[in-house]
Amino acid sequence: MTLTAMTLTVDALNQHYGSSHILRNVSFAMAERQCLAVLGRNGAGKTTLLRCLMGLLPASSGSIRYGMVELAGLPPHRRIRTGLGYVPQGREIFTNLTVRQNVEIAARATGAARSDVDAAFEEVVALFPVLGEMRNRRGGDLSGGQQQQLSIARALATRPSLLILDEPTEGIQPSIVQRIEEVIASLKQRIAILLVEQYLDFARSISDRYVVLSRGAVIESGASAEMDHDRIKSFVSV
Amino acid sequence: MSERPRHRPPPWRQLAHALLALAALLAAPARADESYGRDAVVRHLCEAKSEPMAQAIGALLTAVAAGREEAAWGARIVAALDGKRLLCAPAGPRLLRDGAVLRDPVTGREAVAPDRLPNAPFVNLRTRAWVEVATAALALFAEPGGAAASAQVAVLEKQYAIVPETALAALVERQPAPDLRDRLLLVRALQSLEAPSADARVSAIATIAGDPTARNRTLLAALAARPDYAADPAVRAALDTAMAHIDTWLRVGEVGAVLFSGLSYASILFMAALGLAVIFGLMGVINLAQGELIMIGAYATWLVQEALRALAPALLDWYLLLAVPVAFAAAAAVGMAMEATVIRHLYRRPLMTLLATWAISLFLVNLVQVLFGTQNLEFVTPAFLAGGTRVVADFMVTWNRLFAIAFAVGILALALLVLHRTPLGLFVRAVTENRDMAECVGVSTRRIDLLSFGVGSGLAGLAGLALTPIYNVNPTMGTNFIVDSFLVVVLGGVGNLAGTLIAALGIGQINIVIEPLYGAVAAKVIVLLMIILFIQFRPEGIFSVKGRR
What we know:
The complex is a heterodimer. Chain A is of the alpha/beta class. Chain A has a domain at 3-83 and 160-236: P-loop containing nucleotide triphosphate hydrolases (Rossmann fold, 3-Layer(aba) Sandwich). Chain A has helices at residues 46-54, 76-82, 99-109, 114-127, 129-133, 144-157, 174-187, 200-206, 229-236; strands at 8-17, 20-30, 35-40, 61-66, 69-70, 84-87, 162-166, 192-196, 209-214, 217-223. Chain A is globular. In chain A, 48% of the residues are buried. Chain B is 67% helix and 3% strand. By secondary structure, chain B is mainly alpha-helical. Chain B folds into 2 domains: 32-192, no CATH class; 253-537, ABC transporter involved in vitamin B12 uptake, BtuC (Orthogonal Bundle). Chain B is elongated. Chain B has helices spanning 11-27, 38-46, 50-66, 71-82, 125-142, 149-158, 165-174, 178-192, 198-209, 214-224, 233-283, 290-311, 319-341, 350-372, 399-421, 423-433, 435-440, 445-467, 477-492, 497-518, 520-537; strands spanning 86-87, 95-98, 101-103, 388-392, 395-398. In chain B, helix 12 packs across helix 18 and helix 15 packs across helix 16 (423-433). The A-B interface holds A 54-56, 75-77, 80-81, 86, 88, 92-97, 101, 104-106, 108-110, 138-142, 144, 147, 154-155, 157-158 and B 423, 426-427, 429-430, 433-434, 436-446, 545-549. Chain B: Belongs to the binding-protein-dependent transport system permease family. LivHM subfamily. Chain B: It is found in: Cell membrane. Chain B: It comes from Azospirillum oleiclasticum.
C-alpha cells in the first residue's frame, strides 16, 4: 500500500434532513497522518458531517472514500474496520458497562483476541491513567471529563488510522482539557485526526489544515499555519 | 380295625398330657389365636366367607408378630389367595398351585392332582382390604427396611382400622427407619382413638394432631360430633386443641401450596418473558409471536418423545432432557427465520412490527393446527417427575412443578453467564444501551440482532419444554402466555434481568393467589389494573437504568 492509500476524500457530499438541506456539496481531502480541523458556528453542519462520515446519517449524494474503499452506503461497523475511529459529541460511552468493558468491547468488536484485550487496555491506561484507577467502575459513575477520556480511549481501542473527534473538550474542566489536548497532540504524526473544535487556538496549533463550514458548505480552507486568525474568528464566533 | 392295646399310651402319660393342657390354659388367657395352626388358617380361608377369612388373616398376622409363625409361609399363603392359586373348597382337597406343581398348602409337600380341581376362594371387597394389609404387613415383617417399605406402610395407613393391634405393635418395634416408625405410631394412634380409656384417647388424639392433614381433621371432626365420644371433658379439650392445631397447619400448608404453584407459574413466565425482554430491550421489537415460539418448543419436545418411543423406547423416560437442545434449536431457528425475513426490514417502525409479528403468530398457529391437529398433545410423565413429597399438612411439592422451577433457575444462571461473561453478552448489553455507538466501535448490530433474536426465541422454546409436564399443549397455548409475558417485561423494565425476574415472580404469585378467590378471569383483570396503576407512577418499570448519559 502506498503512502497515499489511507487518504480521506469527501466529494460533493449532500445531506438532507427532511426538507432541509444540511450539507451542501461538501468536498475536502486529507492525507495520511494529517490533522484536519473542521471549524464553524453552531448549526453549521459540523456534527452532521461527522455523522455522515461515520454512516450514522445517510448521505443524500456524494462520495466518501477512505483509502481504496467507498464508504457511502456501508454500515458504521464496516467503516470502523476500514480504520475510522469515532469520538462522538456528548461522549456516549456505555454507562452500564465498566470502564474496562467499554474499552474491551471496542477491542473485541474489531477482532482482538481475548489475550489482546488486556494489552489494549493497558495501552489506553498509559494515555489516561485515571481509567486504570476506575477500571471496574460503571461508565455512568464517571465524571464528564473522565467519560470523555474513556470515549477517546474506546475509539483508540479500535486501532484507527483516522480518528474523528467531535468537540472533545466541550464542557470539561480545564485540567482535563489540557490532558486531552496533550493526548491528541501525541497521536498526531501517528494517525490522521479529523477534529471538530470550538477552541480556535488549540485547533490552529494542532492541525495541519483547516476547513470552515457555514450553513452546510465549505467556505474556507487552507493550511493552518497560514490561517488568518481574526478572519476565521469572524466565521466561527457568534 | 382290631384293638391293639400295646399302642395305647400308658395311664401316667394321659395324666401328664391333661396336666400340661391345664397348665397351658392357666398360663395364658384364652384368646382366639390360642388355637392357632396353619391348618386352621387354611381351613378358614377355604370357607370363602368374609368373616372367617378375615379372622384367619388376623390370626396369621398376630401369630407372625408373636413369632409363632414364619412370615414367609404367611406371605406365600396370602399371595396364593390373592393370585387365585389357593385351590380349595370348604370341604375336599386343599391345594396350592406352585407353577406347574400342586402342593399341600400347610406342609408344602407335593400333592396329587384330583380329577377335578377345586375353585379358588373368592376375595371380595372386604377381604381384599385384609389381603392388602396382610401382604404389606408380612413384607414388613420379613424385611422392615425394604425398598418398598414406605409403600407398605402407606397400605397400613389407608387400612388402619383392620390392622391387628399386636401385629402393629410388633411392626413399630421392628421398624428401623424413624420416619416410617412415626408413621406406624400414627396408625396405632388412629386405632387407639376408640380405646376405652380417656387417657389412651387423649394421647391418640395428640399423636394424630402431630400429622396435620385434611383427612385427620375430618376424622377428628367426626369424633367431636359424636356426643358419646366427646363426653369426657379431657377428651373434648384434647379434640379442640388438636383440631385448632391441625387447622393452623392446614392453613400454613395451603399458603405453601399456593406459593409453590405461583412459583412454578412464575418460572414459566420468567422463561417466556426473558427472551421477550432481551429482544424488546435490544431492538424495541414487540414480538407478538413469542407465545407461538413457546408452543413450538413444546411441540418439539413432543416430537422428541414420539421419536424416542419409535426408535429407542428405553430412553423414553429421559425425553425431557434430550429435548432440551431440540426445543431450543427449533424455536431459535423459527425466530431467526422471522428476524431475517420480516422483522429486520421493519426496524424503527414499531406498529408495523407489531402487525407483522401478529401475522406470523396467526400463521404459526394455523400451520401447527394443519400439521398436528387442534387437540391437546399427550405427554408421558417421566418416572422421575411423577409424584412428589409432602412438606407440611396437605402441601405437596410435586416433582413436575419443581422441575419447571429448577429449569427456570438454570436458565437464569445461564442467561446471567452469557450476558456478563461472554463477548456476545457484552455486545448485547452495549447494543441495548446505545445502538449507534455500538456500531461506531465496530459491533455488527445486525449480527447481534439476529443472534439475540435466536437466543430469545430459543429461551421461549425452553419455556415450552418446561411447561409440558404442567400445562396443556395445543396450537393456541401461546396466547395464554404472551399477555402475561408482556406484563412481566413492561413491569420489569426493559432489558433488565433482575426486573424481569422480580416481575415474573410478582405477577405469577398474584395470579395464583387471586385465582382461587375470584376466578381466573378476574385475576387477569385485577393484575392488569394493578400494572396500569403501577406504570402510571413508574413508567420505566421496577428497575430503571441509572447514570449519567
